[in-house]
Amino acid sequence: MLRSPLLTVMVQAALKAGRSLKRDFGEVEELQVSLKGPANFVSVADRKAEQIVFTELKKARPDYGFLMEESGAVEGADKSHRWLVDPLDGTTNFLHGIPHFAVSIGLERDGVPVAGVVYNPATDELFTAERGRGAFVNDRRLRVAARKELSAAVITCGIPHLARGNHDQFRRELAVVQSKAAGLRRFGAASLDLAWVAAGRFDGYWERHLSAWDIGAGIVLVREAGGFVTDLDGGDDMLASGGLIAGNEAIQRSLLATLKSV
């Protein structure tokens, strides 16, 4: 596939950060046996990957702003464009030696996600999308799954954990989706959940309490693969609200109605 110069820059940044994370992931697996554990090491790996992404993107587009998980917001002279960067999505997986994590880089233009790259260095899967140009994994075109009924669908979600989110609300939502879906999964990396919806591996996805850097890239992937993404009210305020529902048109609509019934 032919990539635009902008997407090429994003891919190069993600691959470079991914190589750093892959080396550190091997070290984390070894650190599992230590009493201290790998938590401090992972935080260093996370910040190092973010610095790599920041340096690469800043060099290519010096006027663009940033919103990053570790370093927060960095204002740019260009107020229309902002990078959304999660250098290590799936930190808990990484921490425990589970090979399901990603570098996620999104680009928003005037508040709208327009390009995204999600890269899992453990599996060497590179998901890319740019508005109007389609979505791909390792240069293979992606399409969302074609299933129309929740009764045939596998749905992924996020589960709020210790001191985060509304546990009672999630249990109510889980119960109603559980009663209608063919299967439920929780993999622990929002960017990859969205990428896998784009790839047709999951039929739908919902989660609350996310950050813009978790989902900026994935929103573009799903939409460019022919899918639909809204916030939990059916609107387009995902980046600000932190809640979203994704799937093909039928599954997204059914999942939205199901969750609204709670």
TrEMBL record:
Per the entry, which co-factors are needed? Answer: Mg(2+)
SUPFAM superfamilies reported in the protein's UniProt record: Carbohydrate phosphatase
Q: Which GO terms describe its molecular function?
A: inositol monophosphate 1-phosphatase activity; metal ion binding
Q: Which UniProt keywords apply?
A: Hydrolase, Magnesium, Metal-binding
Any matching Pfam family: Inositol_P
What EC number(s) would the UniProt record show? 3.1.3.25
Record keyword Magnesium present: yes
Q: Which domain of life is it from?
A: Bacteria
Q: Mention one GO biological process in which this protein takes part, according to its record.
A: inositol metabolic process
- Which reaction(s) does its UniProt entry say it catalyses? a myo-inositol phosphate + H2O = myo-inositol + phosphate
PROSITE patterns cross-referenced by the UniProt entry:
IMP_1
- Record-listed Mg(2+) binding positions: E69, D86, L88, D89, D214
Family matches, as InterPro entries: IMPase, Inositol_monoP_metal-BS, Inositol_monophosphatase-like, Inositol_monophosphatase_SuhB
Report the enzyme's class at the first EC level: hydrolase
PANTHER family tied to this protein? INOSITOL MONOPHOSPHATASE, INOSITOL-1-MONOPHOSPHATASE-RELATED
**Family to which this protein belongs:** Belongs to the inositol monophosphatase superfamily.
Q: What name goes with this protein? A: Inositol-1-monophosphatase
Q: Which organism is it from?
A: Blastochloris tepida
